[in-house]
Each structure stands twice: as C-alpha cells, then as structure tokens.
Design brief:
Layout (H helix, E strand, L loop, with lengths): L2 E12 L5 E2 L5 E2 L1 E11 L4 E6 L11 H15 L7 H11 L4 H19 L3 H4 L8 E2 L1 E4 L4 H13 L4 E5 L4 H12 L7 E5 L6 H10 L6 E3 L5 H8 L6 E3 L6 H9 L5 E5 H4 L2 H14 L2 E5 L5 H12 L6 E4 L11 E2 L8 E2 L10 E2 L1 H4 L4 E4 L2
Parallel strand pairs: 7-8, 8-9, 9-10, 10-11, 11-12, 12-13, 13-14
Antiparallel strand pairs: 1-4, 1-18, 2-3, 4-5, 6-16, 15-17
Helix pairs in contact: 1-3, 2-3, 5-6, 6-7, 7-8
The structure holds magnesium ion.
The site of magnesium ion has 6 residues, from loops.
Length: 369
C-alpha cells in the first residue's frame, strides 16, 4: 500500500465552559486543532488530529503543526502507511525533533492499518482490557470555593478522578487543595497539577502544607531536577508530565525514582507508535500512566481511547475524554463518556468518520485525493 495524498484541515473547538485556565496565567477559550487526512492507492483513508494546548504549554503550537505537516507531506507520498516503524523512521530522517508535528500523521496511518486488517486500533496495540476505562476531569483554575464545588458537579457526571489546576500563588493553591479534598468521597482520587508553575521553594511549601491531604502532586516545577528535589522531600505520590517527553526521560525518572505515575500524551512523544513503546516500557517497569494528549476533539479522543483501553487497568491511572469539553464534534463514532468512563470503538481502525462539513476546506493538499 502507498500513500497517495495528504490533506490538513484547521478546525476551531470552543469550550462548553467558555475558558480553560491553568498555571502562569495561561488560558485558552477556543482550541485550534489540525486534522490530517491520508489517502492511499488501496482506496482507504485514515484520519489523525493534533491540538496543542495553546502555544505556551509544551514546545508546540497549532500553526507549527500545520507548517511541519506541510513540510513532511510531499516526502511521504509513496510510503507504506501500514509499516508504522518504517514510517516513523522516515519522518525522523526528514525532520529532526518536532514530535507533535508527526503525531497526527502517525495516528492517521494507524487508522489505515486498522481498516486494512479489519481490526480496531486497540486490538493492534495489544487488545482491549475490560469493558471501559476511567476518566479524570480537569478543574480549570478558579477560586478555592469554586474549584471545590466543581468536584461535586463532575462527580454527578460520573467522574471519580479530579485534577485541580494549581501552579499559581502557593497560598491560594494550598487553599484550593484543602477545599477540594474536603469534597472527596471514598474511592475518589485528587491530583494537584501545577503544570510547571511553582518555583522549587514554593513547591516545597505546598507539598509540606498538604502532607496530611490525600492528594497526588503533578509536575510541580519547570525542570526535572526541581521536580526531583520536591519528590525527595514529600511523601505525596508524584506525577510527572511535561518533562516526560521521550523514552529516555522515562528511564531517567525510573532510575531516580522521580515519580509514581507519568502522564503520557500522544502528541508530546510523537504519535501512537512512540506512545505505545513508552506505554509498554512503563508496564514492564511498573509505572502507572494517565494516557491522553495535549488536547483535541473526537479524533484525538478516539486515539486516546484505543491506547488507554489496551493498557492493563492496574497501571492505567486515568485517561480523558476531551471531546466532552468542546462544543464542536468533528467526527462520528468517537467514544462518548458514560458515567465517567469511556470505551474504544470496536470498528476497524480508529472507528471515526470525520464530519467533512465541519472540517470545511483543507488548508493544504498534497498529492491525489
Ligand atoms: Mg499535567
């Protein structure tokens, strides 16, 4: 099979709640997502999606995704989309780094491989584990009282895992964590995600102030070394996210016992192929994972579901359903949250059919369609 054409679409994804706020005064009102369509000489088409969390979260931004995909696309015509390792090696030869640029292309090729073999991507990634998977809910940064109230709101929707966006003023963050913790019920999980927002001394203060609270601390500081220092001074379980951007960082973190859980985002590491490699390493090392992406709509949510649902539940810390946060649906067939959980599609490939009327005209087209 050969790739004969690559197209990219730009789509805006507004939020039901109007705005999503996290550390450092960062906020997004409308997400800028890119959908990639890959056509083949076998008559199959695959779809992928990449949606950075604005330009200031990871070294990734929406226009950069489209520019990078346009840079790669002409050289990928004629490549076999079903030989994923070869395809990734080719992309890495053509463009050094920029893993997020490659993610939607890799995702679309998994969609094609699934359709070509008649198997859902979750089967190709190891097979579904159980009936469905548990999701976390991110709680946008707000006053301690409002964030605590959101715990009850989201529990009513079935969620039991609550990720507070902290990483602001440490005194306010201590209040946020204590207020939210008071809302917890047996079986709930609370995560305080600072998204790199604290300095090391601020993180030390917060970790000490919440030492008697049942809470996980996620990515307290910008640098790995700062996070490690905090880790070595707190008994709270530690999640690392932003600094875990490739397999070597997983190995380094494991050697240093720097974390209990990692946050594995598909586009942060370059696509499903590389995310699966990290997922499988973490299974061998006994490191739990939240499996998700930076953000996205229906296609990203479908890809997350296939990787997460094929991960044994004992090491799947949580996952997420980004398509429920946004007001626009870009594909049919994507997972829909039921009682705080979701399941991967059992249809071949990713199991999604893009709504072409929502995607509109492509921003660029390479090859034949
Ligand atoms: Mg995080």
């Amino acid at each position: 099979m050969k790739i004969t054409g690559i197209k990219a679409y730009r789509v805006e994804l507004p939020l039901h709640e109007g705005s999503y706020k996290w550390s450092g005064g960062n906020a997004v009102d409308v997400f800028d997502s890119t959908v990639v369509a890959i056509t083949t000489d076998a008559g199959l088409s695959g779809y992928g999606e990449i949606c950075p969390l604005g330009p200031a979260y990871l070294p990734a931004y929406a226009a950069g995704a489209r520019t990078g995909i346009a840079e790669l696309a002409p050289s990928l015509l004629g490549e076999d989309p079903t030989t994923l390792a070869n395809l990734n090696r080719r992309m890495d030869q053509l463009l050094r780094g920029h893993p997020y640029v490659k993610s939607a292309i890799d995702m679309a090729c998994w969609d094609i491989l699934g359709q070509a073999t008649g198997q859902p991507v979750a089967t190709l990634l190891g097979g579904r584990c159980g009936d469905d998977i548990a999701l976390y809910r991110a709680i946008s940064q707000d006053s301690p009282a409002n964030m605590a109230a959101k715990v009850a709101t989201y529990r009513a929707e079935g969620y039991t895992k609550f990720q507070l966006k902290v990483g602001g003023d440490p005194d306010t963050d201590i209040e946020r964590i204590r207020a939210a913790a008071k809302m917890l019920q047996s079986g709930d999980t609370l995560i305080a995600d600072a998204n790199t927002g604290w300095t090391q001394h601020q993180a030390m203060r917060v970790a000490d102030a919440v030492r008697n609270v049942d809470v996980y601390i996620e990515q307290p500081c910008m640098r790995y070394e700062e996070c490690l220092a905090v880790r070595q001074h707190t008994d709270r379980p530690m999640v690392l996210d932003e600094v875990i951007d490739d397999i070597m960082m997983v190995l380094r973190g494991h050697r240093d016992q720097a974390m209990d859980v990692i946050n594995l985002k598909i586009s942060k590491v370059g696509g499903l192929t590389k995310a699966r490699q990290i997922r499988d390493l973490c299974l061998s090392l006994g490191i739990a994972m939240t499996i998700e992406d930076s953000w996205g709509g229906d296609i990203v949510t479908a890809a997350i579901a296939h990787l997460a649902h094929s991960t044994p539940p004992e090491l799947l810390f949580s996952s997420t359903d980004f398509n429920s946060y946004v007001t626009v649906s870009i594909a049919e067939g994507a997972p829909q949250r039921v009682n705080g959980r979701m399941a991967a599609s059992t249809a071949p490939g990713l199991g999604v059919q893009p709504r072409l009327e929502v995607l509109g005209n492509p921003v660029f087209t390479v090859g034949k369609h």
